[in-house]
Each structure stands twice: as structure tokens, then as C-alpha cells.
Amino acid sequence: MDKASHLSLILDLSPSQWHLSAESSNAYPLSFKTFLSHVLTFVNSHVASKHENTLAVFGALPRKSVLLYSTETVAEDDLATSVADSNSYRPFRLVDSTIAEAINKELDMLDDLEAEAPIALVGALTKALCYINRITHPPSGGAPEDPAALVSPRILILSVSPDLSTSYIPVMNSIFSAQKLKIAIDVCKVYGTDTVFLQQAAHLTGGSYIYLERRDAFLQYLIMSFLPPPSIRDVLAVPKQDKVDFRAACFCHKNIIDIGFVCSVCLSIFCAPVPVCTTCRTKFPIKTLQRLNASRPAPPTPSNGSASANGTPRPTPPAGRQNTPLSASLR
User: How is domain 5-235 classified at the architecture level of CATH?
Assistant: First the structure.
């Protein structure tokens, strides 16, 4: 608890998803304006928790990621020249204005076509990892730093966009990098369905994944679940995910699959047996391919599918979180 904490916050700034989140037809609509006000309250609480705490805010925008705010970039001159307000603490006002102005600037630069593009979540996550690696490791040839002076880093992702299957490999590489750097990745799913990749990121790095069921209590979730650093969460009743979806995306079609076939040489994942691995060019025996094709589950018949014998549609079971490992391997 005596160690300073660094928080790298990644904001999902997808205009199309935030438009859907604010619709009145939702059970608990949450507009982007309300979301941002709660986020600013949360980051100010983090900075106020300890004088040595640091903060970096990254924005995941359509097709690009940017650094919106960093404690290092705020100079004493900026604090001195900021507009005084008797109703607000000047350092908090500087954080609020810097983040809000940077977000407005980036959103104003987007056109209608770019607003519908997928967000660059992987780019924001990679920049957060690089930033943490720079502040936690002294430069080569410099004097070794006092271990007590080093900060305890963590990453928090506020997500509203669905999974992008083509980003499976970059996301997994980022997870492995976070594991090596001992960085916990927390995820708060603010809107939309559960994300498979971010569930795995939180589970593998020792972070928390929370799906926001009551979005009118968003600030309470942030303060109670994500404000305490990982070092003191063991003594707190912080909610965590009870099940993790371990499904992966195939390397051939970039689809999330339940049953996959893994190359025994390079561990590439495919949705169907292939004669030649497209990654390492390894050739597999014909008998092995025949045996694997014969063991594949048969497609569902109409009687067991979504329609009954008289043509009346049957309700589809709700898609729950599964814990299905990849079941086959090409040998």
C-alpha cells in the first residue's frame, strides 16, 4: 500500500457504439457525456489517493490510437497558467480539461466513414505497455533506481465495442508481454456483449473482468472495483469473473471457433483440417486428415435446430460463457 501506483487507462471511443449505448430503448442508457464525467471523477480519485500516483490515458479511436493525457506531459507552467476556478481544485481541473479537449479534437477529425471503422484497441494496448515499460525500467547505463521508488503499474480498459477476430494474435501477444512485465489488465465491459479476448486478457494477467449490468451505477463500479491497486485487492471483496471463454480465432478465416485443429509444429489454429499449414508450411499425412475429418461433429439437423417439424421457430438457447478448449491437433 505504501508503493505508488501507475494507471494506464484505455478508453473505447467508438462513435457508433456510443450512439447505440445512449438509445432510450436500452434498459440502462448511458450517454458518452455521462460516461466521460464518471471517468474524470475516477481518474481524479486515483491521482488523489497518493501524491506519487501517475496516470496515462489512451484513446482507442477508429483505425488509430492516441495518447490523450500523461502525468509526465503536464508541466508546472501548465498548472500555473490554468484558469482559476474557486469551485474546483486546479490540478483536477487541468486533468479534466486536457482529457476532454483531446477527445473533442480527435472526434472532430473523424468523418462519417471513419466513424464506422473498427477501433484500434490493439494499438492503444501496445502503447500502454510501451509507456509502462519505459517508466518502470531505468535507461541503459543509468544509475539503478530504488525499488521502493518504482511504481506498481496496471492497465484498465473501458470497452463498448465487440471482439475483432482479426486482432486475436496481436491481443495474445500483448497479453504475453503484460505477463512478462507483471502488469495486471482490468476490463470493464460498459456496453455490448462479452468480449472473448478481453476476458482472457484479464484472466491471464491476474486482473478483473466486470460486465456492467447496471450502467446507472458505472461510477460505483469504477470506485469499488478498479480504484484499489492489485496489491491490496486480496483483502477486499472485489468481484471477478466466474467463468472464462477460452475460445480462439482460427488463423485461416479469423473466426471465433468452438472446436479447432492445432498444428503440432507452430501451434497455428484452423477451423478445419488442412493438408499444409499456411504458417510453417508443414505437410500432414493423408490418413491423419481423413481421421480428423471423420471425427468432426455432424452439423445440426433441422429437427434439433431452430425450427420444429411444423416450421415453427424454436427459441435459441442463450449464449453463455463457455470453457471449451481446442480439442484436436494435427500430428
Answer: 3-Layer(aba) Sandwich (3.40)
